[in-house]
Amino acid sequence: MTDAESLDKPPTDGESGGLKKSKKKQKRENAWRPEGARDPFAMLDSLPEKEQQEIQKALHLFSLGTSLPKTLQQAKNHTYRFWDTQPVTKLGDHVTTHGPVEEVDASIRSEPCLLPQGFSWDTLDLSSPFVLGELSHLLNENYMEEDDNTIRFNFSPEYLLWALQPPNWLLQWNLGVRVDANKKLVGFIAAVPADVRIYETKKRLVQVRFLCVHKKLRLKRMTPVLIRELTRRVNQQGVYQAVYAAGTVLPTPISSCSQWHRPLNPRKLMEVNYPGLKQNMNLQRALKFNRLPEVTKIKGLRPMTEADAPRILSLLEKNLSNFHLSPLLSLQEVEHWYLPKENVNDTYVVEADNGTLTDMVSFYTVSSRVLNHPVHTGLRAACLLYAVCNTTGVADLMEDTLVLAKSKGCDVFCALDVMDNMSFLEKLKFTISDKSVHYYLYNWKCPLMSPDKVLTTVMSPLAKRHFCLSGPVMIFHPFHFR
Fold first, then answer.
1. Read out DSSP for 24-68?
2. Which of 125, 151, 280, 468 has the fewest CB atoms within 10 Å, counting from its CB?
């Protein structure tokens, strides 16, 4: 008898009884089940955290094949459905001129962009502790985590206000998306104003930060709508250019650089399996290799005070001519970005015997949560913002900076090989990672520039793990273009 014939054959008495028994058993089991289809997200949320972590890790690995390209070679074979509609230079274009990609369109849409049904726009008032807490929760749960889902960002309210409220910030550029039914915050994007010098051109533009969509909504193609709506709001203020950074290749990087890590607490980093550590070292060798002095050695090195701001501005202005991409800071912006804030940022200056400031260095701190570890619950990374060296050797100043960061409880120090950072990275035992950071301009074309011509003061890409640095600039962050 064939399989097809057996399907048509009526059951025997014994088989019929077995089927009836099976149906009765199934009916009893179904009586305990809720009516209607179960929400798969609710099922996932009901699982223990450790099981959720394993499922999310598997989903990440399963989706790697459709992720955005990480190299220019991969990018050549990729179709950019959204970015091909935007005023950016195309991959492969050889640009020798300077200016807008598209001329300004005087007609700006007055109505907000349409969202999927069930969602609404909301302008977030971060002066409200409750709203600031909502944003912190959204970012900490959804902004980014390691590929193996073991570490997540833990942005404090103080850090978010530092990143989102520099001088001249605008309320309408803090853009949120809420669910109509319960008003839950599920999406966010922000912009802050900045004056930037691109080669010899000075431009007022925006830096875009904290682009984040809730994990459960990323298939709804909400990211392009967020970018379009923010663009509309920025255009309403007469601004038509932006600068941003990403860990993936988009059309088209004006410069690319690598990320470097320097362990400050090797024991902890090895225990949490921090990415980028040298795999050929045991603990004792790692401790010896990464040992630092107990105290700083540069005479006159001290924390910045408010009275130092004008002299720091002068130090920065003298250095700007060395770079093709750099911010143009006001005195108020220097005070905002560099004046030390507890658990947010630190700045140190070197004061000569005659009272003049000769050197300065600044870094900010990014906190993360370590998930499901029997001992460690948190991780602190110090990220280099900027250093100016006139009388002190840059390697000596950075070694003292490592000592200071370690004394403040940081576990790792991160830097990019931009500016003249290559002069100290290898000497001070930084290790290059396999991750890159790419810089982009929106609606502005110019020739490409090497990393040593990029000054990242207040323009370091706010990190998406791996460690794309989490700096105050966070512009169209990597891994969130979907």
1. HHHHHHHHTSPSSPPPHHHHHHTS-HHHHHHHHHHHHHHHGGGSP
2. 280
Residue 260: closest CA among 393, 394, 365, 413: 413
CB 263 within 8 A of CB 269: yes
Structure tokens at 187: 């999406």
Return the minimum-mean-pLDDT range out of 40-49, 100-109, 238-247, 417-426: 40-49
Query: 226 and 152, same structural domain?
Result: yes
Task: Tell me the per-residue pLDDT of 349-363, one tens digit each, with 9 for 90 and over.
Answer: 999 999 999 999 999
- The parent domain of residue 206 ranges over 67-246
Within this chain, do residues 369 and 407 fall inside the same structural domain, yes or no?
Answer: yes
Decide if 203 contacts 444 (C-beta within 8 A). Answer: yes
- Domain annotation covers residue 9: no
User: Nearest 5°: CA angle at 56, between 54 and 58?
Assistant: 70
- If one counts the domains in the chain, the total is 2
Predicted TM-score (pTM) of the model is: 0.81
Spatial separation of the C-alpha atoms in residues 347 and 401, rounded to whole Å: 10
Q: Could you tell me if residue 80 is inside a domain?
A: yes
User: How far apart are alpha carbons 292 and 246 in whole angstroms?
Assistant: 32
The CATH number covering residue 161 comes to 3.40.630.170
Residue 333, burial from CB neighbour count under 10 angstroms (0-12, 13-18, 19+): buried
Chain segment 360-389, per-residue pLDDT in tens: 999 999 999 988 888 998 999 999 999 999
Per the listing, tokens 């009526």 go with 10
Q: What is the spatial distance between Cα 468 and Cα 313, in angstroms, rounded to a whole number?
A: 27
